[in-house]
Design brief:
Blueprint lengths: L12 H13 L2 H8 L5 H13 L4 E3 L4 E3 L1 H28 L4 E7 L2 H17 L3 E7 L7 H5 L4 E5 L7 E10 L1 E6 L20 E4 L5 H7 L12 E5 L2 H9 L5 E4 L3 H4 L4 E5 L6 E8 L5 H14 L24
Parallel strand pairs: 3-4, 3-5, 8-9
Antiparallel strand pairs: 1-2, 5-12, 6-12, 7-10, 7-11
């Protein structure tokens, strides 16, 4: 039999997908499961195609399925075109949702940048028309880059209580530590407590961050009401390390900072009673674009595959509720 007219060579979408599934799986049951069709449906579609085209597309035995020369030629011609069509559809949907252009993502610490970098790599593969730019945000001006539009999204220490900003999901939390000079009495301890902050001058970060945010990291009084002296202020984290090593004071930090910033002259001593530092996503209330939403969803998906630190799941808000919208 030969191909007699143009109508007889028309290929419907379900026929195309069925043929490609069998050609790639070389197994009728596996192809049926892949497409979620009723049993026997794939065989019926392939038989219909072979009758219409007048050629045998697959050789079937009790042990295996193989493409005939005609089937192989058909597959070689259809598969690349089908991939191009699927890619074009994906790109069209991406453009339609606004996931193009440039997304600027900020982070406040290197351990926060680790998951941001991993997310950016996955995000670029999923949304190739959207570039991702990363930038470190200084602790002295936590919300400034977000408000000015320098970044569109940020992973940083919580809390966030600003009318123009949205506190999104908490991604992870880290135990707190006290950064002390190597010769300080605290350096010989297994741990310190929050009340100990009244016994040593505190080195803090200077800048424009709101007082409630600074107080969460650099408190002014202990839980029992004892004053905590703020002896010096630094603009950059590297200055804090140098000031502590020089014996000018001590400074609170994430315990995880020891993995990134250990150096001679300083010791990281864990707190025994301080709550963990929470790191979460935030964005402008008027800036929850399709790009931001897509990056948030991608990052939360990546974070959820890791063991949740301190019982906090990725995707929860700082108040324990699951993040579902921008408000």
């Amino acid at each position: 039999m030969g191909l007699t007219n143009q109508a007889s060579t028309r290929l419907e979408r379900h026929e195309l997908e069925a043929f490609l599934a069998v050609a790639e799986e070389l197994h009728f049951r596996h192809a049926t499961e892949r497409l979620g069709l009723a049993q026997g449906r794939i065989s019926h579609i392939i038989k219909t195609l072979e009758l219409r085209f007048g050629v045998v597309l697959f050789e079937r035995t009790s042990r295996r399925v193989t493409l005939t020369p005609a089937g192989q030629r058909l597959y070689d011609g259809l598969a690349p075109a089908h991939r191009q069509i699927q890619e074009a559809i994906t790109q069209a949907v991406t453009v339609g949702k606004g996931i193009t252009g440039t997304l600027r993502v900020g982070f406040s610490a290197q351990w926060a940048s680790d998951i941001v970098l991993k997310t950016a790599k996955v995000f670029r593969r999923t949304y190739p028309d959207c570039a991702v730019e990363l930038q470190e945000v200084q602790l002295g001006d936590t919300f400034g880059p977000l408000r000015s539009g320098v970044v569109d999204l940020q992973l940083t220490e919580f809390p966030v209580d600003e009318p123009d900003l949205v506190a999104g999901p908490v991604i992870f939390s880290e135990p707190r530590a006290l950064l002390v000079p190597a010769g300080h009495p605290f350096a010989r301890r297994v741990s310190v407590c929050v009340e100990d902050l009244a016994r040593a001058p505190l080195i803090v970060m200077a800048g424009e961050s709101p007082q409630y945010w600074l107080d969460n990291i650099y408190p002014r009084v202990t839980p029992e009401g004892r004053p905590i002296a703020h002896a010096a202020a630094a603009v950059y984290w590297a200055e804090v390390l140098s000031m502590v090593a020089s014996g000018l004071g001590v400074s609170p930090a994430s315990l995880r900072a020891a993995e990134y910033h250990s150096r001679p002259g300083i010791v990281f001593v864990p707190f025994s009673d301080a709550p963990p530092l929470e790191y979460g996503l935030m964005w402008r209330r008027d800036g929850y674009t399709a790009r931001v939403r897509a990056f948030v969803e991608t990052l939360c998906g990546i974070a959820s595959t890791a063991a949740p630190p301190h019982g906090r799941r990725a995707g929860q808000r700082g108040d324990g509720r699951t993040e579902t919208s921008q408000t």
